[in-house]
Amino acid sequence: MRTTFPRLLLEHAAQRPQAAAMREKEYGIWQTTTWHDMAELVGHLAGGLHQLGLQRGEHLIVVGANRPSLYATMLAAQSLGAIPVPLYQDAVAAECVFPINNAEVRFAVVEDQEQVDKMLEIREQCPQLKHILFDDPRGLRNYDEPGLAGLEEVVAAGKVFASEHPDFFREEVEKAQPDDVAAMFFTSGTTGNPKGVVHTHFTLLNRAEVGAKFDKLTAAEEVLAYLPPAWIGQNIFSYAQWLACGYVVNCPESSGTVSIDLKEIGPTYYFAPPRVFEGLLTSVMIRMEDAGTIKRKMFHAFMDVARKVGPALMDGKTVGLGDRLLYALGNMLVYGPLRNTLGFSRVRVAYTAGEAIGPDLFSFYRSIGINLKQLYGSTETAVFVCLQPDHEVRADTVGVPCEGVEIKLADNGEILVKSPGLLKEYYKNAKATEEVLSADGWYHTSDAGFIDASGHLKIIDRVKDVGRIKGGANDGAMFAPKYVENKLKFFSHIKEAVAYGDGREKVCVMINIDFDAVGNWAERRNLPYAGYTDLAQKPEVYELIKDCVEKVNADLSRDALLAGSQISRFLVLHKELDADDGELTRTNKVRRGFIGEKYAVLIDALYGGKVEQFIETQVKFEDGRTGKVSATLRLMDAKTFDAVKQAA
Amino acid sequence: MAQKKVGDVILDVQNISLRFGGVKALTDISFNVKEHEIRAIIGPNGAGKSSMLNCINGVYSPQEGSITFRGQTFKHMNSRQVAEMGIARTFQNLALFKGMSVIDNIMTGRNLRIKSNILLQALRLGPAEREETAHREKVEHIIDFLEIQAYRKTPVGQLPYGLQKRVDLGRALAMEPQVLLLDEPMAGMNVEEKQDMCRFILDVNDEFGTTIVLIEHDMGVVMDISDRVVVLDYGKKIGDGPPDEVRNNEEVIRAYLGTSH
Fold first, then answer.
1. Is pLDDT of A287 > 50?
2. Which residues of B touch A139 (CB under 8 A)?
3. Which of A221, A437, B1, B242 reaches 20 to 30 Å from A50, CA-CA?
4. pLDDT tens-digit series, residues A547-572
5. Statement: the pTM of the whole predicted model exceeds 0.90
6. What domains can be seen in chain A, in order of their start residue?
């Protein structure tokens, strides 16, 4: 599709002006914006921004939750040839300084008082930041800062401008070319400063179109926009594909109401990271345990049927009549109501990506009739590199290369990708760009993997994290930390895990328990606990986790490549790893290096054979203040198993 | 930031004395409240702060003294009259309808403004339906303001304490009051919850211009957000003025604030 986002907007507004473009739940009711209204708003906003001096090619940051005005801002900027740069709304003020200065940003469009305060806080460090425009005026009445203005004002001024210059908007839109830069996304790098990933209208729309064709998306889709706009996935699902297909994007009322709004909308096309699906399954299981006997028996009986029959039905394989009838009955009594409660009644296609997903989790959703599939991609590839076709869905692969994508493997196992959707460059960072984009157009994903017999891509781990065990019984064996961590996280009791073992004799793991799941488990055993730290230190919980660890070891012992990655020792952390403390990225990926330094005393204790270790850590509260949390942690051994030779 | 405009005296309490048999809850208390200000009433437990609020509100009838509101003087206040005049309050121990949802609880605050009679409401006939929608819109604005959208349909009894207090505030706000009497709105809250509550109180004062009379024990909060403070001790007034003045008042320090040794 060789066109631009603003042109697509105008096309939809011309062809289907009264059709719903976006909905926002406000004051308890869903308020619709039609394509015509959206185009008008964008036109006025563009006029207003033009009057404030927004230049072609200039960057404009956008910070806030998903709201029609945020999307309108991005479109308005693109109409003028400016480049929207969305930032994470839960970032601390200091985290915004680098992107703003790196992109020499003069315009910031933010959602509310909280974001305005952040911008004002860093204004000294970002002297070129001239205009701070806000959407929600609550709390800002008495603010008297230069350059601070409400979006409403800007739109009103733009309306006047539009009446005086009726052709301005269209003329500006016509100037944009498909290969012009359309947006920039800063990757929440696990190391060093974030890098600005530059994408053009074409790279984003090409991938959006390929994805839409693959899953036969139409203008009738309903999508819930609840993930951070700064994340490329959210941009593809709710912006690029929205404009490419012309479907409806629904914005929830607040982050607390997402699950309620999900049920009300009943999206047809849905994406969530694996931990959201895990969390849903955990809450379903917990609530089932509270249910009456009949319901519980019914649930477990029909879930057994689903497990046997469901995936086969979803994959289109032949299933016997008796099983079909039983499944249909289950659908009426259990799976249907369950899908409804989760909000998935109308889901045709649901994707997950970003982390490995547990096989049990995966088959649970597929068995109750939710077409959950995996995909593979990144910010640099505008998401769609590999997709799983409807009838070839498996838990341990990420799919087949999609249209336009070529994949090859480097000598060290790194996956290389060639695709029309690759980033143009890293902004102002030629060196980094050269490192990942070779002269002949191959992108280095820094993921290690291989293509299996059926043509599906399997991911092992980040290339730089794949290590080797040194010394001891498993000397030379491959160690893939993420692989091990994911296997642990497949258990509902374990929320996060960090594994170490490269260059060491054995593998040691630090674990975060899942508070909801383990809390519930403890309550059923009449085990009282005072809070997260207290629960994490209970000997019974340690035994529970030890059990999980040993199950993972047994599983690993059967793996052809990674039998040497079994876990010898582990501990349970006293506090949850948190992005605010720098331990996770804003997309909740562990920063192994940083954690290794911060918790060095624990890692040394694990490898040193100690049975307990005191630790005091600094934590950062959401408002930026710091505090300390300390505990004496128990360190435990886990049983490992001899590698089992697989039949060739 | 632009300075707040505090107006003239809107509520004047004159020589109020309240006795329960031999117990002198309040003795000759006089102070006033200016429009748009945040007036704090502080003092040790049992000083008579809640009793004072109850006198203004019409729950107790003082034996002596009078209260003047917007030029009208009363010897005793009548609860309903007080509500109709535009004075709303929250309660120290909450007085919510635990079985009803959040939205229904806040709707009850609209009670005085609902005009249609019970028959029309029961049958949901035209005017009653339209009226309910209009009131519902107002209530939704309050829910949005207090950020409790996720709990709209939840029975209030199931909510944590901090949220129940917010609903209590919401119900008082539903009356669109000119004066808001808050009885220990932050009791039992942790730091984060207190910050949220402070923000709401300040926003109410700022956005709607509501005059606020606030009973509170957290000195940090009182000193930070109030314009003037009244200090009570054993039913007597021992201090009255801006926070800094009261903070340095010897008698107040001795009775309530304490000194570091």
1. yes
2. 199, 203, 206
3. B1
4. 999 999 998 888 777 788 889 999 99
5. no
6. 5-191+226-239 (3.40.50.12780), 274-462 (3.40.50.12780), 466-637 (3.30.300.30)
